[in-house]
Amino acid sequence: MASLDSHRPGLLASLNGKYHRAALLTFALVVVAHWAEHLVQAFQIYALGWKTADARGVLGIPFPKLISSEWLHYGYAIVMLIFLFALRKGFAGRSRQWWNLALGLQFWHHIEHLLLLIQAQSGWRLGGGTAPSSIIQLFIPRVELHLFYNTIVTIPMIIAMIVHRKASAVERQLTGCTCSPESRRELATAAS
């Protein structure tokens, strides 16, 4: 005899179906908060003239260990990667292509943070420097590089979300997602 729960979708199916919109909004808030930290740090350096070591964003001022913790930076890179992967099935067609691009770019960003974490833990330094360095950081300073990485990951994410909200009927049917206004109207019509 099948259990009553056998017809309930799992967590990933729910996150990519009826809760996709809420999951995307939650994820977007996390991304915006992270962006705010990077933008405040850039403002502190370029507008206020602070030294890079003193420019720690918003949370780094009261909690300086946050900004210097490679575990925190790597943890955020992993969270981004997990969310991009976990929410992927809620996209179809062109929006899925854009989301996949963001996922691929974040995978590389995660590799760079993994390399930084390994160096911080082991004492080994890429390029023989005095501080941990990612591969691209050998050519571009860290603050600017991470603004760049966050930009190239966020832009395809935003495009994916916009295209996803305008999904065709076929794409909506493929995903079962309720993000688009049309799918919410269809649900309201079916419920009445």
Description:
- This protein is mostly helical and 192 residues long.
- It has one domain (14-183).
- Helix content is 66%, strand content 0%.
- It is built from eight helices and no strands.
- It has helices at 11-15, 20-46, 64-68, 70-86, 93-122, 142-165, 169-175, 181-191.
- The longest helix has 30 residues, at 93-122.
- It is elongated and about 65 Å long.
- Mean pLDDT is 89; it is low at 1-5.
Number of strands: 0
Distance between the termini: 33 Å
* Content of β-strand: under 5%
Radius of gyration: 20 Å
Secondary-structure-derived class? mainly alpha
Q: State the low-pLDDT regions, or none.
A: 1-5
How many H/I helical runs? 8
Helix content: 55-70%
Number of individual domains: 1
What distinguishing features does this structure have?
192 residues; 8 helices; 66% helix; mainly alpha; elongated
Précis, in short:
This protein has helices spanning 11-15, 20-46, 64-68, 70-86, 93-122, 142-165, 169-175, 181-191. It is mostly helical and 192 residues long.
Task: Map the helices and strands.
Elements: H1 11-15, H2 20-46, H3 64-68, H4 70-86, H5 93-122, H6 142-165, H7 169-175, H8 181-191
Helix pairs in contact: 2-6, 4-5, 5-6
